[in-house]
Every structure is written in C-alpha cells, then in structure tokens.
Amino acid sequence: RIHSGCFFHSQSPSYFIPQHSELREDKESRKKQVRPLFRHFRRIDACLQPREAFRGSDEIFCRVYTPDHSYVTIRSRLSCRVGEILALVKEKLQYSEDQPTQPGNLILVAVTSSGEKAVFRPSDEAVFTTLGVNTHLFACEPSELENLVRTLYFLPCSHYAEEVANQLVVFDWELFSCVHEVEFICYVFHGEQSRWRPLNLELVLQRCSEVQHWVATEILQCQSLPKRIQLLRKFIKIAALCKQQQDLLSFLAVVLGLDNPAVSRLRLTWEGLPGKFRKLFQQFESIADPSRNHKSYRDLIASLRPPLIPFTPLLLKDLTFLHESCKSFHGDLVNFEKMHKVAEMVRSIRRYRSTQLAVEAEPSPSHLQTKAYVRQLQVIDNQNLLFEMSCKLEAKDM
Fold first, then answer.
1. C-alpha angle with apex 217: 110 to 138, nearest 5 degrees?
2. Which of 45, 171, 198, 271 is the most interior residue, by most CB within 10 Å?
C-alpha cells in the first residue's frame, strides 16, 4: 500500500517554543544536514552517525537503481513527490558516462526480493519509508518493467556476539528515541487519514522485521553443519545479551528469527546444540509465547526498570485492540475510559526512556566494522526462498 501525506514534526510546540532567531538558526543548520535512511544508503561513514528523528522536510540520500543494477544516488526531501524523484534521477542519468542512451519517460517502481513490483504514481509522496525490509527503488521505462529483478549480496556474520549485541542495542535505542509518543496514536487511530505520517515509528517496525530475517538469512547461508550449530549458539547468546541490556525489541526479533519455520525445521542443526543453549532458548520461547495475552512478556517488562526498549509491535497491538473495542460503543464514559487507557500507554512509553540507555563496552579494533555491519544488515525476506535454502541444507526426509 502506498501512503501519502505529511510527516509528524517530532518536537511538539507545547514543550518548547523557540524564538524567531532560534528558528532561523535551526532552519539554516537543518539545511546542511543530509541524512541517509539506514537500509537504502550504503555509505559506511554515514550509517555510523547517531540516529535522529526524521521530518518530512529533511533531506536524505537514497539509491535509485536502473534495470542493469547500476544506481544513482539522489538527494531529496523525505516528503517529496515521485515526479520530483524521477526528475532528479533523469538529470543524473543524462550526465552519466555509463548511460549509452538518453533516458526516456521513466516510472518509479518498488521491487521486493521475491520479485513483486509496485509502480508509484507521479503524485505519490513520501515513498521512502513505505519500502519493505529488502525492497529497492528502480527507475525504468514502462517497457522495461517486466524484466526488473532484485539481486542480493550478503556479508558473513563473523563478528563477536558481544559486539553485535551491543551495536544492536545502541541502534535500537537511537531509533526508539526518535519516535514521538503521538506517532503511536497517529499510526493506530488515524491511519491514512492522519495529518502526520508516523515515519520514525515505521522505521522501528521495519527494523524489527529486518532483524528477524537477518537471523534466518545468516543461518540458512551457512553450508557447514558444525559452523551452522556454532552460528545458532551465537544468535542465542546475542538474544541473551540483548535481554540482559533490556532491549526487548532485538531480543524478541532474534528469537522469532530462530523460530522461523525455515530455521526451526533444521533437525540436525538443533540436535547439535549443547543442552545449556537448548534450555536457554526454550526459556526465550516462553517469553515470546503469545498465549494468555502475552503474559510472560508482560511479566518480564513489568519487572524491568527504565531505560528499556519495548517490543514495539505489541504496543501497537494493544492500542489497536483498544481502538477496535471502542468503535462499537458510544458515550462520554466509554470515551473517557478509552482516553485514560491511551494516556496510560503514552506514560509507559515515556517512562521506558526517562533515563538515557548506556552500553558499557570497551571498543575493540573491529568496533566500527561491527557497527556498520549491524546498521546495514543484508537479508532475504522471501519466505519461499528461505524454505528452499533450508531444504537444500537438510532434506525433508532427514
């Protein structure tokens, strides 16, 4: 689904009213900032920068691919229209030495790793954050649409578990800190009719999906059974470290990635896992168990003190349930109770980040490489392809 509309401004005027000179200075400083989306721009030096909340007026770098899988890097506003993006791409291609012919009438297409295509209208706005975990933007002529395919490249997960876990926590905290509480309300209660796009919240949700597919991708790429068992141990250890540092977003994302049917069916791999790790993973699965309204998870988060990173999809599920349950009822009392419960959830979100999360770790020589790796995960999000890879590793009759 293609959304359109404006983005939410993450600094509410009810909290801070800057003077005209400060507004002018802030505007000038923001003109100089060009920030990359973490999935679609691959410059290592840029991805190492701390995350900040996005606004529709922000300028970003983004890669737009051509049918031959070369690409141009454009600079545009996050909320700009598709027609503007294509104009920027066309201008770049006209001056490219690798372009044998002048580009004709271009269309903008989102292509997933499974080959699904979505063609954008020239009037569509803010398309960058509507992209899936492993989706690329292509600019092509209409006649080239049918031949567009995605090519995937991967990096081996050769980093230490402690370093990877630390960087997962740091990045999750940066992303979660960028989300204003009102974005949760807009996402659930207003949907496409909202005046503001919950842009930063969408990035957190995409990150959760990305981590899940990353776990499955790394394991299913490992051809050697002993190394696959070792990698399975590493991911369980990463989950334990994320839980220890109260990052429940990556903790449960890793657990759900290991529970992916393409991974859980690898009988020989799981049988080779030491008993201590099997028992630990069973405990993690019980926390991820949705029975009794996610009681195990709720008990865990109730026992933690801030700062912490919650499992954001469950927050949205609670808000959605509250919204749907009140739709069929009317009256001031029902509305009051509804708003009271919403306010309680907003206070909880605010409480989770009432203090700054600090990861205590001595930087190693590979610190920057691990940081870049974690912030630019390469994943397969096509479940059919993952299952096919799984069956090649361990046949169905094994």
1. 15
2. 198
Place of tokens 């490489």: 369
Residue count of the chain: 398
Asked if residue 86 lies in contact with residue 72, where contact means CB atoms within 8 angstroms, the answer is no
Q: Which residue has the tokens 């600079």?
A: 75
- Name the residue among 5, 253, 312, 252 with its Cα closest to residue 129: 5
Find, among 54, 46, 116, the residue nearest to 63 by Cα: 46
Place of tokens 């659930």: 188
Q: What is residue 139's three-state secondary structure?
A: strand
Distance of CA 333 to the CA centre of its chain: 38
pLDDT digits (tens, 9 = 90+) for 80-129: 889 999 999 988 887 655 554 556 789 999 988 777 889 999 988 878 77
Q: Kindly state the percentage of the chain with pLDDT values over 90.
A: 44
Task: Answer whether 191's CB lies under 8 Å from 356's CB.
Answer: no
Q: Nearest-CA neighbor of 163 among 311, 359, 351?
A: 359
Q: Stretch 158-181: mean pLDDT, rounded?
A: 91
List the alpha helices (DSSP H) in the chain: 20-31, 44-47, 82-94, 161-177, 181-185, 199-221, 225-244, 248-258, 261-264, 267-271, 275-288, 291-302, 312-327, 332-352, 367-375, 383-393
